[in-house]
């Protein structure tokens, strides 16, 4: 499989926005070192606040070390895989860092997965140990009859091998494992990846620490170590929250204001009480804030830095939230294979709404055509990324690794363009591109137009088979509350905004669109549903 070899002849205009940014010295340590350092610097500072329970950095490290000490007694070995299948809870952070102290590999698992989904991951990664909560308990119980674990440990207090019991009875770990940051895998993050099949991205200690440091530098002087409070409502088992809320929070010595789920009334009350300063959210959360009845009565001015990931953020939602908080949301881009962040709109200085921003410091990017040749500005092609945060490869899957990683570049499968100032724009997924009678249609362009309509809350556009043109565009629309949508009017609106061949052939009104647990739109389910109609 061929790959681009260009290294230094393309233009990188985004470098102009790095002025004043010191060159980054990427740390050659283990992920556990993040907690070690902050516990030394800020021992009395709250590390976690969860349901009014406060855990200081000293207490957090003590609990991590005691759990790791007991795990070592259980003959846990460096390189063993441990699944964390639980919703947001202090135990997640404790188990995550205890595993890193021992050189184990964390496999992050959605506790709401079905038995089939869970077995797919456990069989592929060959999990040795599993930590689970009450949400996952039923599936874990069923899995025990099919898959053999060395140990399954609940976070409920019952049993000698429950996490609370192991913490309470543990003797602190005397010495942590010695890891090779570049080679040793810290996390296996399962993802649909660039080809849609479930694969485990191997993220090394160096990958994860590099992305934390990149993120911190990207925020410039707006983040003050030992002074920030992170509003952590996105699931920690998701790579975005793992880095942007948990690992970055620990690195900064921040207080992690942790929520089991996104319960907006509870979160709003907690914002008034604890005054968080940093919110790594997803579009669905920002939409909920913006549309919450009486939101104007809450003081959200404490939020000085906000970022959005997982999916494109509609412009109208961004405007509403920024007006409420007097801050701005830094749109960005990332993927599991990149730990995950690669681009971000800076919180200060220039930003471009609708853009994913500029590459993180230390990150290189190219846009290439189908022959792997670099393209110039304003040209649409596949986005390639290189940098210290790029994964080692896919777990036990060399064929997929060879497709994704070529000559030092990660082929993202996303279509993008770069403007003359070095700001990047995602046009769509390579596999989502619709070809109608030879014309390339990018769903995101149509969706952006639909989101501008005052009656539309959400929109998704996919390609469906067509005998006449090979493919046709279909738009799925969720109307705003108490609004009746006239599809003929919507179609006319699209014709006023788009070239005729880009206007969807079909429109369908839905009460909601299929999304995963962090709000990412699952377009493939819409396509599957359409295909089933044709049978």
From TrEMBL:
InterPro entries: AMP-bd_C, AMP-bd_C_sf, AMP-binding_CS, AMP-dep_synth/lig_dom, ANL_N_sf, ATP-dep_AMP-bd_enzyme. GO terms for molecular function: acid-thiol ligase activity. The keyword Ligase applies. Gene3D superfamilies: 3.30.300.30, N-terminal domain of ligase-like. SUPFAM superfamilies: Acetyl-CoA synthetase-like. Residues 445-520 form the AMP-binding enzyme C-terminal domain. Residues 36-395 form the AMP-dependent synthetase/ligase domain. It holds the Pfam family AMP-binding. CDD domains: FC-FACS_FadD_like. The keyword Hydrolase does not apply. Keywords: Ligase. PANTHER family: LONG-CHAIN-FATTY-ACID--COA LIGASE, NONRIBOSOMAL PEPTIDE SYNTHASE PES1 (EUROFUNG)-RELATED. This is Long-chain fatty acid--CoA ligase. It comes from Peribacillus psychrosaccharolyticus.
